[in-house]
Each structure stands twice: as C-alpha cells, then as structure tokens.
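Open question from group meeting: does this chain pack into something compact, or does most of it stay loose? Before anyone orders reagents, we agreed to write out a predicted structure and look at it together. Recording both the input and the output here so the notebook holds the full record.
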Amino acid sequence: MKIGSIVPALAVTIGAAVVSQPVMAYGQGDLYTRVGVAKVSPKSDNGNFNELAPGSDLDVDDESGFAFTLGYRFLDKWGVELLAAERFEHDINLNGDKVGSTKHLPPTLTLQYYPLGGTDARVQPYVGAGVNYTRFSSEKLEGGDLDMDDSWGYAAQVGVDLLVNEHWAFNAAAWYLDIDSDTTATIGGQSYDTTVNIDPIVVMGGVSYRF
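Structure tokens returned:
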C-alpha cells in the first residue's frame, strides 16, 4: 500500500475509533475542569485623563495567557463554574503612546444553563451569567505612580463542549466582563483621577476533563 493511501486510511480509522468511544450522559453530578489559552481583549476607548491631558484617550492592550475553570453540575441542565487564570499584564497607552502597565486577576463565577444536559449528545452548548471580581496589581506609570482600584461587575458567558469520550472534550468559550476601575495617576505630587472602563471579551480554547 502506498504512503499516500495509508494516511487517509489511518485518519479514518482514528476518527472511527473516537466516534465509537462511549460517552456517559452529560449532566447532574459532573465535576470537571477546562484548561486552555485565553485572550483578554478590552473594548476600545477605555477612558481619558482630561485633567492631566485635555482631549486624551486611554487604551488598554490585549493580552493572552493560561486559564482554567472548575465546574460542577448540580442538575442535568444547571451548573456553576469558576474561571481563573494566571495574572494578565496589559500595556496602557495614552494617545497611542505607552505610558504604563498593570497586571490583573479576573476570577469569575457563573451560573450555567445546558439545554442538552442529561443526554449523550456529543455537542453540548451552554450559556452563563454571574459576577466578576478583578484585582489589579503591579501598576506602573512612566514618570509617576498609578493606582487602580479593584472592580466588581457582572459577567456573561457562552460556550460549547465537543465530547470525545467519557472524560475528555474539546472546549471553546467566551465571556463578557464588566470591569471598571477608579484610577489615580500621581505625577510630581499632583493627583489626577479617572475611571478606566476595560469591559473585555475573553475568548478561551482548550480541553475539558470530567472526573
């Protein structure tokens, strides 16, 4: 058999093996973790520092990093999930020029609804709503000091699991997080206050494991 015909045949065999794997009903009592890479994309036009520079525009850059969740299904169609991650570091730009940076942790707790919960359907979509707490740290400002207050806000979520077998699945998910931080810049002993509206979309792709 030629190599060119072996590769497609092998792919078909592997695919058939995956499809033939039994999948336990997806629902009540499931304890799981999802692991992957997340990209935090703040909205554009994150605020201004008009007291410091009239007509100024603040922008917070995107950042990617490792993230994971831990969830539990207390009913077939309902569950809770906690999103956690490594600290994300974002550059802060004023009128297009980098003037500082900050790091943050965005733990987010959501109540989730699974419309196909309790079945063995391999494609399992879900939606969620909940609360986000964001803790800022390591704020830096060129030529001064920067202080960003922690933030509480609401969160919304959509996602889908593509089940491979009883334990493993591929996962894709997205969150909208309401993050607004009261921020103070201190330069030359003078303080300037503003509110930084980050409000990012967080997109995560990875794998899920049911215990």
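Observations to bring back to the group:
The chain has a mean pLDDT of 86.
The first strand starts at residue 31 and ends at 41.
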